[in-house]
Amino acid sequence: MIATSIESRRSAPLKGVGHVRRVDSGGDRGRVVDTAPRRRPAPTAPPRPGVPPASRFPRLLAGVDEPTGPVDLPHHLELWGPLDFHRARAGLVDELDASGLAGHGGAWFPVAAKWRSVGAGSRRRPVVVANGTEGEPASAKDGFLLEWAPHLVIDGASAAAAALGAGRVILCVPPRLVAGVSREVVARDGLRMDPVGIEVVPAVEAFVAGQESAVVNALEGRAPVPSFVRIKPVRESGVGGRPTLVQNVETLAHVGLVARFGAGWFRGLGTARDPGTTMLTLHDGRGVPQVFEMPLGVAMRQVLGLSSAATADYQAALVGGYGGGWVSMATLLDLELSEGAARRVGAGLGPGVVALLPRDACPVAEVARVVRYMEGQSAGQCGPCVLGLAALAHALESLAFDARPPRGLLDRVGQLCDLVEGRGACRHPDGVARFARSALGVFGDDMAGHAQSGPCDRVGSRPVLPLPVPAVMPPPGHNGHRDRPGRALREVARR
Ligand SMILES: Cc1cc2nc3c(=O)[nH]c(=O)nc-3n(C[C@H](O)[C@H](O)[C@H](O)COP(=O)(O)O)c2cc1C
Ligand code: SF4
After folding, report:
1. From 248, 375, 389, 432, mutation site for ligand 1 pocket: most ligand atoms within 8 A of C-beta
2. Ligand 1 pocket member 105 (CB < 6 A)
3. 83, 207, 370, 403: which is deepest, by most CB within 10 A?
């Protein structure tokens, strides 16, 4: 019933702007289900198309919506032409600076600044790592890109290797995509396209395993957890002790275009402050995530194809995934698609996740479920993260499910958020704190209702926010952990 009303209120995908694709849900993320794959015949000679108009859209997903299957090498060369890695070697970092490209893995750090810091003062040849881990359970865009348009990612990684003088390129991809991406790498080898050899390795599938030092640790055969802050950053000492650039796969795909067509072309979409496009994963409560590409700076109501009436269907939206923040529907619809705008409303674009919470879901139970999952994903090595997230998860579960939650629980949730923030070796606890704190603001009435009168009548409804494995949740009325949040809170506070 909800799906029908949502359907009627969403406008059709915006042709030439939206580029909506459906992907599987249920853990096997990123597979197109509305396309019948069919191989294109290989052209006899690689075509050399001219420079496409800067306004041509979509960019990263160009060719993906044709009923031809993934963009293989002949199709890729037909769309974009070959990439001149000699040119990349000469001036790509300056070009990236002028392009304003920022990282799309979650932190939106300027790409040129990062490249300049890799191996600064070192004479050792760096290593380039394409981070396709996509540990965020609600994100599907990186896997989608690697499956449907892998060559732009590989172009970007090779361009980085050329520009930085790297001796190795490693693509970390979800295990299910290793075979497909390897096949495309072999096709490139046949044309001797890439300046250095490319290795394809399976990424570790866990939330914190995508953090850059965790990726390097996994590649080095160590536990796939973030390194402590006192350890040298990977840009100084990463894979094999060499300076290492870890860059998100979507970021590298944008690099592949900047390296071809330059900064001015890249700025042909988006705004002066937020140039280019970004990929997004949308969850609209129907269980089937959708992957989009959109120009930055566009209003969210246009991005999502939602009218003001959508506020009748949805309670609120999660922007930026499980390290992002909740916003009201009214805020969402007026929000501009950019990291800066999302931060100003207490969220963040993160890896480009937007999840709409339908009216019949219990927000307190949803928040408790996700925080419990995130607590389980802690690498278990920093006390405030381990104890603080456990305490936060207990407190939220008590709030969601206990018939008579302990008094002062809402305040305690806020205090725990303050206590874990900035206290870990990585930003995992900071993300959880932002997620939970924003929930206190946006779902204040629901939280207060649970605190006063116990679970609402929506508490048993079907979970909406996607998690890799169903979290084991206490039954309604459970109170077994009632004293633990307080105890753990005291332990955290002592540290
Ligand atoms: C807990 C945690 C998990 C992360 N997971 C991912 C991930 O799955 N994929 C990713 O590209 N970046 C992830 N990151 C960010 C990486 O540490 C790193 O900043 C990023 O890969 C750099 O690429 P970018 O600058 O192109 O975004 C994560 C960061 C944290 C703190
Ligand atoms: S803050 Fe948490 S997730 Fe990050 S390294 Fe420490 S224990 Fe692991």
Report:
1. 248
2. yes
3. 370
In DSSP notation, 376-429 reads HHS-S-SHHHHHHHHHHHHHHHHHHH-SSPPTTHHHHHHHHHHHHTT-SSSSHH
Domains of the chain, with CATH numbers?
A: 73-266 (3.40.50.11540), 297-358 (3.10.20.600), 363-494 (no CATH)
Residue 276 has pLDDT above 80, yes or no: yes
pLDDT band at 468 (very low <50, low <70, confident <90, very high): confident
Q: Which of 212, 374, 421, 428 to mutate to test the pocket of ligand 2 (most atoms within 8 A of CB)?
A: 428
Taking the centre of ligand 2 as the mean of its atom positions, its distance from the CA of residue 354, in whole angstroms, is 25
What digits encode the pLDDT tens for the residues 363-406? 999 999 999 999 999 988 899 899 999 999 999 999 999 999 99
How would residue 65 be classed by pLDDT, with cut points 50, 70 and 90? Answer: confident
Ligand nearest to the CA of residue 207, numbered in listed order: 1
Pairing of strands 353-358, 290-295: unpaired
pLDDT band at 486 (very low <50, low <70, confident <90, very high): very low
6 CA distance to ligand 1 middle (Å): 33
**What whole-number distance in Å separates Cα of residue 469 and Cα of residue 448?**
29
Dist. CA 77 → ligand 1 center (Å): 29
Whether the CB of 103 sits within 6 Å of ligand 1:
yes
Mean pLDDT in residue range 222-234? 87
Q: How far apart are CA 348 and CA 434, in angstroms?
A: 9
How far from the centroid of its chain's Cα atoms is residue 437's Cα?
A: 20
Say if residue 58 is preceded by a cis peptide, omega within 30 of 0: yes
What CA–CA distance (Å, rounded) separates 318 from 313?
A: 15
Each residue of 24-60: pLDDT tens digit?
433 334 333 333 334 444 444 455 668 999 999 999 9
- List ligand 2's pocket residues with C-beta within 6 A: 208, 225-226, 378-382, 385-386, 424-426, 428-429
State the closest ligand 2 atom to the C-alpha of 380, by its place in the atom list counted from 1: 7
- β-pairing, 277-283 with 290-295? antiparallel
The answer to whether the CB of 251 is under 6 A from ligand 1 is yes
Pairing assessment for the beta strands 244-248 and 198-202 based on DSSP bridges = unpaired
Report the Cα 218 to chain-centroid distance in Å. Answer: 19
Question: CA-CA distances (angstroms) from residue 444 to 30, 316, 391, 421, 450?
Answer: 34, 12, 20, 21, 10
> Which atom of ligand 2 lies at the shortest distance from residue 379's CA?
8
- In this prediction, residues 133-142 reach a mean pLDDT of 97
How many residues in total does the chain contain? 495
Q: What is the mean pLDDT of residues 299-307?
A: 90
Phi, psi values for residue 292, rounded to 5°: -120, 160
